[in-house]
Design brief:
This protein is mainly α. Helices cover about 80% and strands about 0% of the residues. The longest helix is centred in the C-terminal third of the chain and has 28 residues.
Length: about 60
């Protein structure tokens, strides 16, 4: 679901992963027609990093048990 949001409304992706400042910057970038593509790429990349960070946190939590 977040991936679909990243393609349609890149700025909203940042709010869903807890990065509101990046979301505001992305919205400003997205307001230009040329900036839409970089905003989308940035959102998809950030979402990928967010998922990777969550997997690492989960692995470390299980390791500590």
């Amino acid at each position: 679901m977040r991936l679909l949001i990243a393609f349609l409304l890149p700025w909203l992706t940042f709010f869903t992963i807890g990065k509101p400042l990046a979301g505001i910057l992305c919205l400003i970038l997205q307001l230009t027609l040329i900036g839409w593509i970089p905003a989308t790429i940035w959102a998809v990349y950030s979402l990928s990093q967010y998922k990777t960070d969550k997997k690492i946190e989960e692995a470390l939590a299980h390791r500590g048990r």
